[in-house]
Amino acid sequence: MASSEPTNSSQPEGQPGLQPSGEAPLTKSAAKKDAKRAEKAAKFAAKTAAKVTSAGAASAPGKKKEKTQEPEKTVEQSTTFVNTTPKGEKKDLSQPMAAGYDPIAVEASWYDWWNKQGFFSPQMGPDGKGKPEGTFVLPCPPPNVTGSLHIGHGLTVAIQDALVRWNRMLGKTVLFVPGFDHAGISTQSVVEKRLYKATGQTRHDLGRDVFLTKVWDWKNEYQERITSQMHRLGGSYDWDRVAFTMSDDLSRAVVETFCRLHEDGILYRANRLVNWCVRLNTTLSNLEVDQKKLEGRTMMHVPGYDAKEKFEFGVITSFVYKIEDSDEQIIVATTRPETMLGDTAIAVHPDDKRYKHLHGKFAVHPFVASRRLPIVADSIAVDMEFGTGAVKITPAHDPNDYDVGIRHNLEFINILNDDGTFNENAGERFKGMKRFHARVAVVEALKELGHYIETKDNPMNVPICSKSGDVVEPVMKPQWWVNCKPLADEAIQRTKAGELVIQPKQSENEWYRWLEGIQDWCVSRQLWWGHRCPAYFIRMEGKSQDTADSKNWVVGRSLEEATERAKAIAGDTPFTLEQDGDVLDTWFSSGLWPFSILGWPKQTEDMKNFYPTTILETGWDILFFWVARMVMLGNKLTGQMPFKEVFCHAMIRDAHGRKMSKSLGNVIDPVDVIEGVSLETLHAKLLEGNLDEKEVLKAKQGQKKDFPKGIPQCGVDALRFALCAYSSGGRDINLDISRVEGYRKFCNKLWNATKFAMLKLDSDFVPEASSKPSGQETLVEKWILHKLNLAATETNKQLTERNFMAATTAVYNFWLYELCDVYIEAMKPMTDESASPEMKRSAQNTLYTCLDGGLRLLHPFMPFVTEELWQRLPRRTEDPTPSIMLASYPTNDASFDFAEAEKTFDLVFSVIRTTRSLAAQYNIQSNVQVHVLTSPADAAVFESQCPTIVALTKGCKSASVVTDIKDVPAGCGSAIINADISVHVLVKGMVDLDVEITKMTKKLDLVKLNVDKIKKLTSVPNYETVTPDNVKAANVEKLRTLEAEETTLLQSKEVFESLR
């Protein structure tokens, strides 16, 4: 069981700069009386009192020594916690605090109470506008309804809610809008897989309407599941404003945008090259295509083919085309031999003398007899030093060749059906073949004709669909496009003008690079799930029309508006309207998120009060997918940047640095970290997804390696704090669950420290109305108030700079190493029976101020445990604040500025550290007697701090102050702090004198060596004239300290020798 007193827990692995170097673990006071502790404990219920008394006895003088060196253990709960608080009601805290921290019990009920009380809603000023302190608006990046949240979403919530709660506590009007994204391709894909796995049916078997009903069912199920996870993570969202990208309001915004962009000439229809995913049967944006790098010949499996079939990639195949009416031939090469069936030209460089005589002539296609391939001269597409200097041109299936086709007015021949088979344009021999079967067949056919030259290794990138893993094909399709160039130019201009700040800086540089090279955006998707394009084909009776021709299309906010526009085009010709069956790219609706969630295109009160938003916090990996589109569309449609700042957080990887993947088994559900989960349950969850048997087996092996005993219960607060503590502006986070578990121990420390500290507050204690110092504070009180002020100043500074690692470190250090390890221990003599009422009252008020301020500092990172503990504290008079989340956040307070007191107590603390070090050096664990030798000027300060020195030194019996070396008892081990202060611990009769004399001799030799170095340094010519004054002063002080240490060592050695 954990002690009710604060204990020294080891710092979580990886927390930077926390443990003072060389410092031994701090311990409890050894000078307290059992009667006093029993009196305090009696004010609690009998069961708790017994535990408290027992814990107190463990540290009392003369009792069995407590094992303080062992890592702190959290309390094992003997029974499963059952929440009896009615939903939405405030938790009853009238019972005594539990023996130890139980995250499940602590986190229960608070969220529902916060939400029911309306604490998550923005608090407006008296005029109905934002409060004078400012307005802070954060649109939550909407998670996809494809599945549950993973640990990356946990990072998002931890960072965003820390900012939200911090700003709310600063007194601002705060709006944190939650929502969900329909995620067109991803959601349709996962539902299709689940449908086929369960029934063997495809969406086409069901039909559009029935299939969409199933997708809506999926959406509702997973939105509810994700909502529960968001509640569990403690995000203080305004749930009255929850949004969904396909809700009626947001859908109206999508239609308005499509129509307005078309009316402004920004959105247009064109038959252009797109990325086609055969597996998903839809177009993809460039950002949805991954490039798989191959170093040479690689056999790859392609989705949609037999599992045992593999095809050759990473090679280049050379073959010849015969020149028409000639015996000549020309050699070309390709990494995709099957595309030669769509070739419509051969390009050469105009200056290449080898081919000048062929300019204007034709080559003959070997498999399509009617097709003649012109030899065109193109200096852009051809490098005559590369290969043969001749390039086959397939305008309808290659981005570079597409441009050549435009320049030379070539024929664009599509050879690919949507399902990945070849059409009649590929010739009778290959018509109906699947594309990669055709690859093999074309090479064989070339060999039969004698046209084949060779195949050799060729490093290359293979375009892969990020959603399906299929090899992406460039194909020609009539689609809707957005001209992004003018939008990007405005985004660049406004960003450079300071309207948008992007952090970290690395992301800003990438921002400009991407916007400057932006291409038009294909927004059509051949899906059923999504916003159907509000575009209509005008089918006129008796006319042959091309669906690729934009003149035959109208757009409209409604069918009525589209009909009126169609009448103007058709005139008296009868017509019908056919709505485009395609839907819009998911990012088209997501790009409207910051203003569509506030009611745009209507000029709502939310638009007036909360737009533009304050910050967009998201992952750097979707800076272009999403953020750039929000900026471009926001500027275009609202005339303003949609937010003032973009903060890009890191990508979470596993402890080995690997990207999280379901097939690796390293994807972590944040709720599993919060509640804990067995390895068997982790294995079972793999079966809920769409992994095949081999992938499940591989994932199980990964889970067994990473989590052999499952994932321990850590709680929300520990998880949130850990994720923030990892965030310092880097690109990646290698998440180690053991570090999260370490912060659970920190929560236990908070619990026990607060529980023990409250024993020091009388049952009728009421804190002073103001936290301002009374002027009667002791040195250590001034020191801890100053440290609280420094922690508040540093935390606010780092949160402003978005350095969450530094912010959490500042709060962590204050709680663990200053409040718990120093002040709570040092105040014990100030609250025992011998202390005056005035001193006791002052110490109690200081303790209360630090507990209250420390919990408020910590709240944005650890909302649940801080609320639970804060609610147990008494309130200042006339303080009606109902919740810590509405309390004011500590900021710099000039009345807490005790810089001189800090310096003085730091000197006292140096004495304490040195005393501990000497006691450890001589292995003295009890009956420690320390004598501080100091100048008469400092004697009074150290004399007043003797009780503190005793309280903060393990096993210390007494402390005294002397001003003459002669008054230091014989037989002391000694150490120098500076030239004026030294510490002496009585070791006579406790050590081996010969061993200690040998140690002193070695130390003396080292000190003399350092003295000689400084004297030599200061005796060089021109030292006084060329050396800076600060360096000279430092050298003088170093020499004084070394000479004092030499004198002390000599005297100690003489004493030890006389005792032999």
Helix content: 40-55%
Q: What would you call the shape?
A: elongated
Category by helix and strand content: alpha+beta
Largest sheet features? 7 strands, mixed
Rg computed from alpha carbons, rounded to a whole number of angstroms: 37 Å
Strands, total number: 33
Strand content: 15-25%
Low-confidence sequence ranges: 1-78
Task: Summarize this entry quickly.
Helices cover 42% and strands 15% of the residues. Strand 10 and strand 11 (329-334) form a beta hairpin.
What does this protein look like?
The protein is an alpha+beta fold and 1060 residues long. The chain is 42% helix and 15% strand. It contains 33 helices and 33 strands. The strands form eleven sheets. Strands 10, 11, 12, 13, 14, 15 and 16 form a seven-stranded mixed beta sheet that branches. Strand 10 (315-323) and strand 11 form a beta hairpin. Helix 23 runs parallel beside helix 25 (804-826), helix 24 (779-800) packs parallel to helix 26 (837-858) and helix 26 (837-858) packs antiparallel against helix 27. The longest helix is centred in the last third of the chain and has 30 residues, at 1029-1058. It is elongated and about 120 Å long. Residues 1-78 have low confidence and may be disordered.
